[in-house]
Amino acid sequence: xxxTTAEEVELESSVRAFIDKPHQMLIGGQWVPAExxxxxxxxxxxxxxxxxHAQSAAQPDVDKAVKxxxxxxxxxxxxxxxxxxxxxxxxxxxxxxxDHQEELAQLEALDNxxxxxxxxxxxxxxxxxxxxxMAGWATKLNGEQIGxxxxxxxxxxWHAYTRREPVGVCGQIIPWNFPLLMAAWxxxxxxxxxxxxxxxxxxxxxxxxxxxxELMQEAGVPDGAVNILTGFGEEAGAPIAGxxxxxxxxxxxxxxxxxxxxxxxxxxxxxxxxxxxxxxPNIVLDDADxxxxxxxxxxxxxxxxxxxxxxxxxxxxxxxxxxxxxxxxADYARNIKLGPGLDPATQMGxxxxxxxxxxVTGYLEAGKKEGARAAVGGERAGGNGYFxxxxxxxxxxxxxxxxxxxxxxxVVTATKFRDMDDELIRRANETPYGLASGVWTQDIxxxxxxxxxxxxGTVWVNCYNIFDAALPFGxxxxxxxxxxxxxxxxDNYTExxxxxxxx
Length: 503
Ligand code: NAI
Ligand code: MG
Prior knowledge:
Radius of gyration: 24 Å
Helix content: 25-40%
Bound molecules: 1,4-dihydronicotinamide adenine dinucleotide, magnesium ion
Oligomer: single chain
Structural class: alpha/beta
CATH class of the largest domain: Alpha Beta
Strand order of the largest sheet: 14-15-16-13-12-18-19
């Protein structure tokens, strides 16, 4: 394996031109630099080389963006156009994403490091689909007619009803693991519901969000309705979370920063939705179809190099099939082709940043010190890029750091269980997180029993990492507040108003 290969896709000229131009931020419909004039480096994680510079937003830029979003909300036009027209614009964003599918996939592969085959097949089309699914809700945000329980005055008549209205100015802070898709998850519903937005994209991966901003302008999103900032968490994210004119904050990232968002939101008690970390259990019973369970469990952890909040990072395998499953996943791991995201043959790219490389290799070291053994992998992989070998850790105890903490890399712990009993449920649920989980069995009754007892926002049965615009996603416990996608996300982006009319 080497960091760059001769087989890399040649960048489309439009992508090359986009990367090379000076990057600015979209505020109030204008492309502007940071007030401070400061920029930061954007890296290619496959080579550790700087490929671009982005604006480093801070409080004054946030103030400007919030003012623009406030004005676009309070004075229109975004809030004054018809729901049908709003829906058409949101739909159009999806269409433009598909028109620029290859460009966006190339940007994502270069900036994030993910395989271009995955960016083409998953990130980009799922982002488009999300906008188009949400577009449909713009015309379906209905209230209800409600009969009052008491007449209040003898013989009085009432007409009472509810209205669903946008929350207002939404601050949105997103991570780097699915840069375009995370932007879509947040922008799609916010816009469909008639809100205006100030979004900060992740400092590791600002490029696809800036490209998306161009496409949103082209789709007809009016000036100020969407503002896209680039910059760091403390300088640019915290001022959004704390801003008194922001009505709602939506955050995806670490649980640690999630807590800071909650603290920052307390000033004006803005609404908060959070999608945070996970340490998801993936349970393989001895009656599972091994031809599906083994690659499925491998994919549960290795997809996106383990940089998934939902990664199936704690594998519980029935003792009768433990050796077969561990050996099967180890074999799968040995055959994964590591390489730069832009090589179409790459199956696993580098981690996103030097910081993540150090974090993940730090966990590998800690695990070994605590007595865990790598059945496969366990090391950094070649070149200057941020590559880590896909790793299966065995001889692990439930209280080791590698079993307890989110590693966010291609590292799974594999442990045994004897019976599908309370003890297994206790171990599966013994984590502060509750985002996702997997169950592999051919026994439908066992599958549903486990599905009801696992404390997590998602249970995948005989599959893993199935995300859909129509399926709600979010966390129990410290994995978050609220749900994204599906009909449930509308709760994050609407207020319900009760209107009581004395007739
Ligand atoms: P992070 O939580 O620091 O970053 C996520 C986003 O929050 C970025 O846009 C960042 O700029 C912003 N941010 C950081 N500090 C902030 C603050 N004080 N106020 C407002 N915004 C702030 O996550 P990071 O450092 O990239 O990764 C650390 C760990 O977090 C990972 O190893 C992983 O365990 C977890 N993580 C979870 C994600 C998920 O999808 N749930 C995504 C990314 C990271
Ligand atoms: Mg951080």
